[in-house]
What we know:
Elements: E1 6-9, H1 21-34, H2 42-50, H3 53-56, H4 59-62, H5 67-87, E2 106-114, H6 115-124, E3 133-137, H7 141-145, H8 152-161, E4 166-170, H9 173-182, E5 185-189, E6 205-207, H10 210-218
Parallel strand pairs: 1-2, 1-4, 2-3, 4-5, 5-6
Helix pairs in contact: 1-2, 1-5, 5-6
InterPro entries: HAD-like_hydrolase_sf, HAD-like_sf, HAD-SF_hydro_IA, HAD_sf
Pfam family, one: Hydrolase
Protein name: HAD-superfamily hydrolase
Amino acid sequence: MTTYEAVVFDHDGVLVELTEMDLLRRAARAAFEDHGVADPPDALVEHAARGELDDLARIEDDLDLPLADYWASREARAIAHQTDAVADGAKPLYDDVTALADLPHRKAVVSNNQHDTVRFVVDHYGLGDHFEHVAGRDPTVEGARRRKPETHYLDAALDELGTRDAVYVGDSPKDVEVAHRAGVDSAFLRRSHRADTVLDREPTYEVETLTTLAERLTD
């Protein structure tokens, strides 16, 4: 058994199902409409939906629309669309989230999703008692640029927990990478949507469910 003081979890694809890309595209289009752009180019909508800031920055020249202003609207729309989806049952928890109760470690959440979205999910599903720290990104361009694999939000969580004796649990190569950069162990959760994902870096653990992870960390 490997013991840790803390276990830090990603959010989407780990605790709760992924947000549908079509929902994020609708949010991106609505944000363009907020700024008087009724028929934005599909490519810009896609860049906005995927959070591809460097490609999206062309709106400043193409549409005379400041990136920071558009991004603030995009984030507000994405938060509203996602929280509505959660409330409507369209973004459910994974069944194995019950395994959180089997982990005696201090726990936190660090997500690339917006902080307000993550906080809503944690509160809506009654998970707050499990976590000492919950963090998503700030709804700004700077906040988006601090997303994983940058360590900004994970470092803040570890500082709040007061330990680097931790494992970070995620479902993407970025999650394995951010753990490495932050100097902590990693657990790659290979759910069905990651069946064919190729990792650039070997994680400390690879499991298919949170139940299996809890068993590995407590046996």
